[in-house]
Amino acid sequence: MNRELSWLEFNQRVLEQAEDRSVPLLERAKFLAISGSNLDEFMMVRVGGLKLQFDRNAMVRDAAGLTVSQQINAVSSRVHEMVARQYDLLRDVLEPQLAAAEIRRVKVSDCSDRAREVADQRFHSDVSAVLSPHAITHDRPFPLLQGLGVHLCVRLRALPEKKPVADSSEDATASSASGSESSASTKTKSAAKATAKSEPVSEPELVDSWQFAVIPLGRSVPRLVSMPSERGHDYILLEDLVTHYVEDFFPGREVMECVAFRITRNADVELQEDGAADLVDGMEEVLESRRLSRVVRLEYSAAASDHIVSFLSEVMQLTNQDLYPIDGPLDLSYLFTLHGLEGFDSLRDEAWVPQAHPSIDPAEGLFTTIAKGDILLVHPYERFDPIVRLIEEAAVDPDVLAIKQVLYRTSKRSPIVAALMRAAERGKYVSVIVELKARFDEARNIEWAREMEQAGVQVIYGIRGLKTHAKVCIIVRREPQGIVRYLHFGTGNYNEATANLYSDVSLLTCNDTLGADATTFFNAVTGASQPQQLQLLAAAPITLRKRILDLIEAETRRCLEGQKAEIVAKLNSLVDTQVIDALYRASQAGVRVRLNIRGVCCLKPGVKGLSENIEVISIVDRFLEHARIVYFRHGGDDELFISSADWMPRNLDRRVELFVPVIDPAARERLLHVLRTYFKDTTNVWRMLPTGLYDRGQADKKGKGAFQSQRVLYNEAVEVTRKAKQSRRATFETHEPKQSD
Fold this sequence. Notes:
This protein is of the alpha/beta class. The strands form 4 sheets. Strands 14, 18, 19, 20, 21, 23, 24, 25, 26 and 27 form a 10-stranded mixed sheet that branches. Strands 10, 11, 12, 13, 15, 16, 17 and 22 form an 8-stranded mixed sheet that branches. A 6-stranded mixed sheet has the order 2-4-3-7-8-9, with helices on both faces. β19, α16 (577-589) and β20 (592-597) form a beta-alpha-beta unit. α1 (3-19) packs parallel to α3. It starts with a helix and ends in a 12-residue tail after the last helix.
């Protein structure tokens, strides 16, 4: 399968969640916003990259045999179709249903007198003082506009000057003409305030007599402006409010048309590290280049006239493929704000509160808890707090000597970063690999890196030519029996905010061999040296590809020898052709291969003579499936792994990743149960067909046979926590007197 078309199939599955009538209304709005946000990134990165490839060599073919030109054409056709479906859903279904639920998008012209007074006050006090129009003339070129921001393009014409009155008859004629002009002007203003006016004026005019202006709306003024209402929640979009009052920006000019538009710039801009003397400076140049990069998409109101469309497409040098007329509000991300409105809980999913892990006692230090045995956490069903708490305890523990950690993405106010800085300020040896090349998080990571350096943290900016994507933290502690290394391995980022939304796995352990491997791995990265042989871990780009291929081939050999053989993997993406070919060979040998691939899957299952024994599913539900879990039957001696890496060339060849075995028997049993649970889903599961399309099961979502894997995993976490609390209540624990020195 072509990678880009496979990704679009994934986004289609997200969009169909928004179309699903069994999903609560505001959750449907959220899924529509997610599909729009996903598409924005796809256009920036993947389509932007395709256009760069086209400029270099348009005839290069991908693994599916498509040239770059064919890919661009196929993607453009599919995206236009998807956008039309998004806005059909918004306009014809969601907005009417939201209005019925008393969440209404309104326009100033339709408001009550009181609401119009509020709109007038907010525009003149909050909006007009902030926004500034930018006139386009021969000496004032088109402004540099922010990608993905909503802007207004205004078509103007100078009002005709009044002629002097010669006599009474002429005065009468002039009065009549003036009355007509006044009436026409009033009509024009009224039309401009209500919507964009695209009809030609009655008198002949030349294009050269028009002038264009742009009003960037920016992000300092909220997009949703709340309006007074007797019931529910009324709001007006900022672009509609400004359009209503747009004439106030242009006294002495006639507003012919005011149209909202939005541009998407190419974000596939990578650092040329060989020419970068300083990585931070180089990344700041990348951010600047992204701000100045070519436009790859223009979205605009479908009411726009040909005059404005021609003007915008010409100034940005766009083709018809790049143009997206939108019959509705641009930028669906405003629906995220609606999802967060207070007072509409019945329109949202019931809250699933993350549970405490039964082995973790808040009254006991985490070092003591981990020393008793490995702990496997399945997020977000179980809290991410223990990972934050572990690093915070390490920061103040006098026996902790060092903390070593990889940070790929973090939150805006990261408690983990704060704890690392506290540890350094207390004299502990703190080394942090901060990946400055984490796309769209570069600026935040640069800021964190500088703050940590000022606090005394040793900050390393990864490896030249590679992205450091591994999720690992090593805490070195002095104990009576000697040095002990406490470890956290994860499939997700050190971001406590997204940990409540993403399905991931964490492993807490103090296993000696894993500790030695992790230290060897970390020192190889920070020391930019050749990694030594690892005993249990596999690391990309050195050994991970070979380890995965060897495990698949070993399963294939066992099957050919008559043994039972099985491979089960849960990943975000499967793209790598070597891995796909190995899985095809395993299927041909009779190995049962079950794949849970959330997003891009370039393997085709169920093809006769090739992949008959391969099953591919995709789960799209309330949590983003992000964990990478891999299982091999291994002759009955099950092997289970968690990983930071998907099976893509970028992960296996161009990133620093980790592949971590789960050794503890209880942790292995829990992890395998989680992995197999997804394949029982009957409510939010999509099955991939040999064509590359997906089919969704139509099971009764509330019937006896309904099985929602995410709900089952959450209910299991709740039940385990309940039993643990009940067990603690049944056990008498005495308070021991504190021993004096």
